[in-house]
Amino acid sequence: MKTRYIYIATFGCQMNVHDSEQMAALLEEEGYRLTQDSARADVILFNTCSIRDKAEQKAFSELGRLVKLKEKNPGLLVGFGGCLAQHLGEGVYKREKAVDFVFGTHHISRLPEILAAVTNGKKRAVETCFFSEIQSLGVFAPPAPGELSAFVSIMQGCDNYCSYCVVPYLRGPEMSRPPEEILEEIRKLACCGVKEVTLLGQNVNSYGKNLAGGCNFVSLLKSIEAIQGLERIRFTTSHPKDLSDDLIDCFRSLSKLCEHIHLPVQSGSNRVLKRMNRGYSVGEYCAKVERLRTVCPSISITSDVIVGFPGETAKDYQETVDMMEKIRFDSLFSFKYSERKGTAARTFNDPVPEAEKQRRLKELQALQDRHTQEKNSALEGSVQEVLVEGPSKNSDSDMTGRTRAWRIVNFKGGRELAGKKVKVEITRGFLHSLRGRMINR
Ligand code: 5AD
Ligand code: SF4
């Protein structure tokens, strides 16, 4: 039988990257082969993001290019999935002729079935209902040969309804995967040579809320720590309101848990945080940061900030700048507020003009660059544990890897180091990476 190829275009966050890996694993089980060349594909899947308008525009502009491919290859099937598919449903067909089927965020495990129905019936499909239980993928997504690091989804959905955010409407209510299933997957990954896992969820700190048996995120982490062969544990994303003292203590007590936490603050103004429905004050956030740094002085703290939320005054914005100066994040993602259909913030008056949003964004990015550079320079002379990923893109004689705090380090070394943990003395801190010298294995 002729080999059938799939091409997957992924937009958005780590959650989507992982969802695409799962789609690939499922369809490979069905005999498809993954290709990086869309012109060769028999099936093209779009895994889309809808968190900000920019992501939405990008998906549609790429999709527009497929019309030509379809003219050349009339048998080509195009599936449109992910958050934007969930959001638009049947409306996708109105916007883009090239699409053959639409599958929402709860339908990844049903892809083979949906694809078979569309292939046989040649009928357009729209699958966007939510299920009340988390759907098991049913297959193990094996890591690529030599892959050291893997994502593991531990939950889906979100119950927080931050007023700007569309995620709860598109990914449904929060549901946790049973711990045995997660542990089994990580054991298998470790057997395949994976040394580092990143646990994924919209708010991993509230893992277990809907599970019988009393498992919570801390107990899950403790069970993962015991898995043989695994060397590093990471997780993302954390909600500050659910970050417990017990979890903070794990940064001291669990040796595999890496010294990095992504803890989105969103704003430094209590007035804005309230309107965002975040459930904490700036003071409470700062107290958690202080506790994290007391328990684990080398911890790297990264965050997200939104500028230009409706009604954000110059004073509110200045409070965000002041908070950043006080906390000094290791790195920060900053975004211009983007109005999303169906969210509470859409009904708020007083939009911030686009030019002012842009000005605030640029200023925050420059401030953060200064902080990141200072943090990276301060590491010069220190010795870091680096998990070596492979040869560097920029030089044949360099290897590259990451510190436990998620910083990229480049250093002279041979290819045999790939997959090993080495000690590297940092000789130079740049804005986006560190340079170092290996001191031993
Ligand atoms: N506009 C701008 N940024 C947003 N985020 C989520 N929704 C919006 C929006 N409507 C940002 C938040 C979140 C990150 C993943 O995306 O900062 O933490
Ligand atoms: Fe969106 Fe808030 Fe849920 Fe994060 S916690 S996914 S920002 S609603």
Structure report:
The chain contains 14 helices and 19 strands. By secondary structure, the chain is α/β, with parallel strands linked by helices. The chain folds into four domains: 4-127, 3-Layer(aba) Sandwich (Rossmann fold); 142-258, Transcription Regulator spoIIAA, CATH 3.30.750.210; 265-378, 2-Layer Sandwich (Transcription Regulator spoIIAA), CATH 3.30.750; 383-440, OB fold (Dihydrolipoamide Acetyltransferase, E2P) (Beta Barrel), CATH 2.40.50. Helix 10 runs parallel beside helix 12 (282-295) and helix 13 runs parallel beside helix 14. The longest helix is centred in the last third of the chain and has 25 residues, at 354-378. It starts with a strand and ends with a strand. The model has no long low-confidence stretch (mean pLDDT 95). It binds 5'-deoxyadenosine and iron/sulfur cluster. The site of iron/sulfur cluster has 10 residues, from helix 7.
Integer average pLDDT: 95
Helix content: 25-40%
Strand order of the largest sheet: 2-1-3-4-5-6
Unreliable stretches (pLDDT < 50, length at least 5) are: none
Give the end-to-end Cα distance, rounded to a whole number of Å: 48 Å
What is the approximate shape? globular
CATH topology of the largest domain: Rossmann fold
Hetero compounds: 5'-deoxyadenosine, iron/sulfur cluster
- Tell me which CATH architecture of the largest domain applies here: 3-Layer(aba) Sandwich
CATH C-level class of the largest domain: Alpha Beta
* Percent range for β-strand residues: 15-25%
Please state the CA-atom Rg, rounded to the nearest Å: 23 Å
Helix segment tally? 14
Q: What name goes with the CATH superfamily of the largest domain? A: Response regulator
The count of strands amounts to: 19
- As for the number of domains, it is 4
